[in-house]
Design brief:
Length: about 425
């Protein structure tokens, strides 16, 4: 939450900061704000080179830097690269009066370098902004992670995964997909979780790639699909009607007999093909061959839904997407959460939703974390929402209890203009 930091007394008496900006006015403005927040020492530099010299001389490094982008001698971008090269890891803000896209490009560069960037901000600076940055510096000192870890997580050894599959430790978790107008549950996405007695709950980004690389992905998918369909059949028998979405790796789509296999599994659990949605990441569409496209066409002919997962991240072309009979467009969470704050995300989100609507696709927004995200999606006419605001992925046993508590929240989720619907 970035609300309500009192703009007083957030600084330690001993703290120092460094403001790097070629404008005297901007440096004085930042200096005055830092002083009002209780910062004892405000160092100033007019450009990157001067900042590097100063940092080399100071007996005690500053706890925070504010870095302007456009400066003579050495600009902000080069300064950040130099800091990275020299291993100087002082938390910093990038401040610029230039367009948002430029600031975001610099943010992306700094994050890629693994630099302790607190954020890119538009000038003029405010006391609230600097107070929040000072507070986050303390988090850095106490070792709290500043940014989501970049790079890939440690993969699990294939032998361990194989054993876990054999022992039935890889289980389906379920995250609800709800109607944006009413909040009513329409379905669940199935997400694999490895529940290990020693490792705890291992998320899929640590084992899906291993499974794909070592020929275990088909077994994993079959096991998850079988367990999840059993769960759905059981919920149905208790009067809970809904659809279920399974994630399919592109490798699984190449399995001979896949269409028949999924149909047979559905039939065995007494489920209708229309209850199943298969999620395929946008990124994988690029590499589909004629065989794979045939498989997708046949799955669709049998009545299963096909969803484009993580839409907006995959570099697919319109032409590639148009070849596949998708029924659902799932917009990646990076365009959903924070769209109410950032104009460029809002434009992308709204355009994607409009396109989905015109193509007759169900639109799903993932990563709905706040009520503000939710209200924006209502305004933009999205069909379904999924995210932490509604529920985290949960074990099958937890769903009935969650549904009860969710019912109590429905009035606060309903679209203000939506007519009341019976649940
Ligand atoms: O919670 P989350 O961390 O569950 O999922 C991370 C990623 O792992 C998601 O992109 C999701 O699509 C993928 N994933 C989750 N379960 C499965 C699965 O059963 N099969 C495949 N192929 N991917 C999955
Ligand atoms: O298949 P896909 O990449 O869509 O998988 C969804 C992933 O997103 C899972 O890892 C799930 O745990 C995660 N997730 C679900 N809801 C939210 C949310 O509201 N915020 C964030 N940050 N992640 C979410
Ligand atoms: Mn998915």
């Amino acid at each position: 939450m970035d609300t309500g930091n009192p703009p007083e007394a957030v600084a330690d008496r001993h703290e120092a900061v460094l403001v790097v900006d070629d404008s005297v006015v901007q440096r004085e403005h930042a200096g005055a704000l830092f002083r009002s927040l209780g910062v004892a020492q405000i160092h100033e530099a007019q450009h990157g080179l001067q900042a590097l010299q100063l940092l080399a001389e100071l007996p005690v490094p500053p706890c925070l830097m504010v870095i302007d982008l456009e400066m003579p001698e050495m600009d902000g971008i080069e300064l950040i690269q130099q800091l990275s090269r020299r291993g100087i890891r002082i938390p910093f803000l990038v401040a610029s009066s230039r367009e948002g896209a430029l600031v975001r490009a610099v943010e992306s560069m700094a994050t890629t370098l693994g630099m302790p960037l607190l954020g890119g901000v538009a000038k003029p600076l405010t006391a609230e902004l600097l107070a929040s940055a000072l507070q986050r510096c303390h988090a850095v000192e106490t070792g709290e992670p500043l940014l989501p870890a970049t790079g890939l997580p440690m993969p699990i050894a294939p032998e361990r995964l194989e054993a876990a599959l054999a022992q039935g430790l890889v289980l389906p978790y379920y995250q609800p997909k709800v109607d944006i107008r009413t909040g009513l549950v329409r379905g669940v996405e199935v997400l694999a979780r490895w529940t290990d007695p020693v490792l705890g709950v291992v998320p899929p980004d640590r084992f899906i790639a291993t499974a794909e690389k070592h020929g275990l992905i088909l077994r994993l998918t079959q096991s998850i699909a079988d367990q999840a369909m059993g769960q759905l059949a059981s919920w149905m028998s208790h009067g809970l009607a809904m659809s279920m979405a399974l994630n399919l790796s592109p490798l699984v789509l190449q399995t001979p007999g896949l269409v028949e296999g999924i149909s047979a599994l559905l039939a065995r659990h007494g489920l209708a093909p229309g209850q199943l949605v298969l999620e395929i990441t946008e990124g994988s569409v690029v590499s589909y061959d004629a065989q794979t496209m045939g498989v997708l066409g046949r799955l669709r002919m049998r009545g299963m839904g096909l969803s484009i997962d993580d839409y907006g991240t995959g570099f697919s072309s319109m032409q590639q997407l148009a070849r596949i009979p998708f029924t659902e467009l799932k917009i990646d969470r990076s365009f959903v959460h924070k769209a109410h704050q950032q104009a460029h995300l809002r434009v992308i989100l709204q355009s994607a939703l409009e396109m989905a609507g015109r193509l007759g696709l169900v639109s799903v927004a993932e990563g709905v974390e706040t009520l503000a995200d939710w209200r924006l999606l209502q305004q933009f006419g999205c069909t379904l929402g999924q995210g932490y605001l509604i529920a985290r992925p949960m074990a099958g046993e937890a769903l009935p209890r969650w549904l009860k508590s969710h019912e109590a929240r429905l009035p606060s989720l309903r679209m203000p203009t939506a007519e009341s619907e019976t649940s």
